[in-house]
Design goal:
heterodimer, A: 302 residues, mainly alpha, MetI-like fold, 13 helices, 75% helix, disordered N terminus, B: 298 residues, globular
């Protein structure tokens, strides 16, 4: 397949010809494909299967009861709230950062990119800890916050902060290469024709990158809802108050409530599957968009 | 920081977007991170050294780094295999496999943790068979390796995949027409071309594994000196209100992460240079700005 760029892909199977010199014999192929299925089956499909199998062990009614219970609903609500704050903030940041980095040349750009990437390389536990050291009672701002009765650590604001940190780079790093690949000619044309900056942004830039942007938001959201380590450090694990869904799963699991733990976990697993489906759709759409753009270009040149 | 425009541009919004970027970055990332180093600097050197070189801490480094290295090595082998099969062969279920490779990115690590523990525990689907062989899956260092292999897989596959896709078919045809058999073509032509990407993938998987927490705490059993990973040691110290100790270990981990980040940046630079020099002249590719794709999920 490599070397061909036909959209449908060339099917080599069943062509009846002997193995080409640049491909493997069918035995080797079958063995390699077999090993791949075995490995991925063991490491990817089995964990997914065990989540649903355990969740449904005691029937559908026990399954449904697990996440209609009071603490579970509180955890789901907190998870939605956290993602609802963290994702839009990081979206705005990602767009602003990508605009500044991709459309302009300035000193210190690569340093800025490295800084934006930093949260990805920090262990989640450390990501939580840095906010404890900042806002906790022992922390730098701790005494001041205590005097004003503001609670950040072991409360919802701390959870939101930790989530913002761990999902920080997702949108920016998805958009920067896209903006760069597109160049600025279209925006310059729009501005020359009298469009305002915001008009140019909303009518030219945004439609051009919408699929990539959506992809970044999906990833950011999946991570925001599923974050465990960082949130675990700052949450304080107060049932019904500061437990997100992953933390609720942990508590149930440690109390040997396996059906309930896996039932809540299955919701998160469904979210993960939905993320993968959306990602495939977005990839397919953006590939098509790129092809269409290419066709437009070649038509324009001809 | 003094910001000077190198090139004049008619596009608006530079000051606004850069200003906002730097403000947001400072508030959420740079200031909290430097607070950690500030806190650490309030420790005396002997105090710091005593904490980070205690036998329990050293045992946790050994496990964290050893298991991460093993898991990354497993992923190196299987990652190349999976990428190869998905890029080169056409078979039923290929698209599904390709999409599923990202599952460890998308699945919350706590879910992965309890699922893997259930599978590899003594009465689990796989642990049951391991037990008959006298091998402990969950609650052992092997369990840590299993969890870290799970979370590291997509890093290796996704770094090798684009390089394999871009590989020029003509080079392989040339090798074959010059009399190389398939294995020679693979080991002498294809492997050298994918080595930089493979090493980058290895480093990304390793870096991610070192900091991993969520999937490991469930499966490891968390016995001090035996199956306690470094991030867990930080949590333990925090729960004992030993903020100074937690900070000291965190600083060690931060320094390790930053070193790995640097190494990955250099590897990626090497990788893109390789790809570029391999291409025909004139083929313009936008420079990837990526420096490190290491979502440290937990």
């Amino acid at each position: 397949m490599a070397g061909t760029t036909t959209p449908n892909g060339r099917r080599t199977r069943g062509m009846g010809s002997t193995a080409r010199a640049t491909s493997e014999s069918w035995i080797v192929r079958c063995v390699l494909i077999g090993i791949t299925f075995l490995f991925l089956g063991l490491f990817l499909f089995m964990p997914l299967a065990v989540v649903f199998a355990t969740a449904l062990q005691k029937g559908v009614s026990a399954y449904v009861a697990s996440f209609t219970e009071h603490d579970a609903i509180a955890a789901i609500r907190l998870t939605l709230l956290t993602a609802g704050i963290a994702v839009p903030l990081n979206l705005v940041f990602g767009v602003a950062a990508a605009w500044a980095i991709a459309k302009f040349e300035f000193v210190g750009k690569s340093l800025l990119i490295t800084f934006i990437d930093l949260p990805f390389s920090v262990s989640p536990v450390v990501s939580g800890l840095i906010y404890v050291l900042m806002f906790g009672l022992q922390g730098l701002l701790g005494p001041w916050l205590a005097k004003h009765h503001i609670k950040v650590i072991f409360a919802v604001p701390g959870i939101v902060l930790a989530t913002i940190f761990v999902t920080f780079p997702f949108v920016a790093r998805e958009l920067i290469p896209l903006f760069q690949a597109q160049g600025s000619e279209e925006e310059e044309a729009a501005l020359t024709l009298g469009a305002s900056g915001w008009q140019t942004f909303f009518r030219i830039t945004l439609p051009n990158v919408k699929w990539g942007l959506l992809y970044g938001v999906i990833l950011c959201n999946a991570r925001a809802m599923g974050e465990f380590g960082a949130v675990s450090v700052v949450s304080g694990h107060i049932r019904g108050l500061t437990n997100t869904m992953p933390l609720h799963v942990e508590i149930l699991y440690n109390e040997y409530e396996f059906v309930a733990a896996f039932a809540v976990a299955s919701l998160l697993a469904l979210l993960a599957l939905l993320t993968l489906v959306l990602k495939s759709v977005v990839e397919w759409r953006s590939k098509r968009q790129a092809q269409e753009n290419e066709m437009d270009w070649s038509a324009a040149i001809a | 920081m003094k910001v000077t425009l190198k090139q004049k541009s008619i596009l608006p919004g530079f000051g606004l977007t850069l200003g906002f970027t730097i403000l947001y970055l400072s508030l959420f990332v740079l200031i909290p991170l430097s607070a950690t180093f500030l806190k650490a600097s309030s420790l005396s050197w002997t105090q710091f050294w005593h904490t980070v070189s205690s036998p329990r801490a050293v045992a946790s480094y050994r496990l964290s780094f050893g298991a991460s290295f093993t898991a990354a090595a497993i992923n190196l082998f299987f990652g190349v295999l999976v990428a190869w099969v998905v890029v080169r062969y056409r078979f039923a279920g290929r698209r599904l496999l390709d999409a599923m490779v990202d599952l460890p990115f998308a699945l919350p690590t706590a879910v992965a943790g309890i699922a893997l523990t259930t599978i590899y525990a003594k009465n689990g689907w796989v642990g049951h068979y391991l037990d008959q062989l006298g091998i402990r899956g969950a609650y052992s260092p092997l369990g840590v390796v299993i969890a870290l292999t799970f979370i590291g897989l997509p890093f290796v596959v996704r770094t090798i995949q684009p390089v394999l896709e871009d590989l020029d078919h003509e080079v392989e045809e040339a090798a074959a027409s010059l009399g190389a058999n398939r294995w020679q073509t693979f080991s002498r032509v294809i492997v050298p071309a994918i080595i930089p990407a493979t090493l980058t993938g290895f480093a990304l998987a390793f870096a991610r594994a070192v900091g991993e927490y969520g999937s490991v705490v469930f499966i490891s059993g968390n016995m001090p000196m035996h199956t306690e990973i470094t991030p867990l040691l930080i949590i333990t110290k925090l729960e004992q209100y030993d903020y100074a100790g937690a900070t000291a270990i965190a600083v060690v981990m931060l320094v390790v992460s930053f070193t790995l980040l640097l190494a990955i940046n250099l590897l990626q630079k090497w990788s893109t240079q390789r790809v570029r020099s391999g291409r025909s002249a004139g083929a313009e590719t936008p420079e990837p700005v990526s420096s490190a794709l290491i979502p440290q999920e937990s």
